TrEMBL record:
The keyword Hydrolase applies. Residues 114-124, 150-164 have a biased composition (Polar residues). This is protein-serine/threonine phosphatase. It comes from Adineta steineri. Keywords: Hydrolase, Magnesium, Manganese, Metal-binding, Protein phosphatase. Residues 131-142 have a biased composition (Low complexity).
Length: 164
């Protein structure tokens, strides 16, 4: 099952002879610890809507091709469009929900480039740990969005979709 920490689906969690971590669905996460190296440029965290469509290496290649010329937000949007099925008549691949986070590492940048940005619109940052996050209101659809940028700048992005 792709659902590892699902709420509900109690039938998959009731094998009395197995501990919680051995059930078909468990609330206990798989945790991997990796040591980052200077040559590591970014990390992609995504859900099965992405990983069922492309391999980890395909996703890395997709992001790396765009990293120098596009924002992380733009790359995520292109990744979603790339994985999206043209219609729902197929095997279901590309019809699942999609979530992705791309974290860009700045190991070789001077600390002055990585310093916290000044808040915009005279709003203070949420906390010292969240200085590159800003809450904004998109009045076009009345949804609150949290915008995180890769280089300390703030960008807004409409969540409206257009069709061609």
């Amino acid at each position: 099952l792709n659902l590892s920490r699902a709420i509900g689906d109690h039938a998959y969690k009731k094998t009395a002879s197995l501990p919680a971590e051995k059930q078909a669905i468990t609330a206990l996460p798989d945790i991997r610890t990796l040591t980052l190296e200077d040559q590591d440029d970014f990390m992609i965290i995504a859900c099965d809507g992405i990983w069922n469509f492309m391999s980890s290496q395909d996703a890395v290649d997709f992001v790396r091709l765009r990293l120098e010329k596009k924002t992380l937000t733009q790359i995520c949007e292109e990744l979603f469009m790339h994985c999206l099925a043209p219609n729902t008549c197929g095997d279901g691949t590309g019809c699942d929900n999609m979530t992705a986070i791309i974290v860009k590492f700045n190991f070789n940048k001077p600390t002055s480039v990585l310093s916290s940005p000044k808040s915009i619109n005279n709003k203070r940052p949420l906390s010292p740990d969240h200085t590159s996050t800003t809450d904004t209101i998109d009045n076009s659809n009345n949804k609150k969005m949290k915008i995180l940028t890769e280089n300390g700048t703030h960008e807004t992005n409409s969540t409206e979709q257009t069709s061609s």
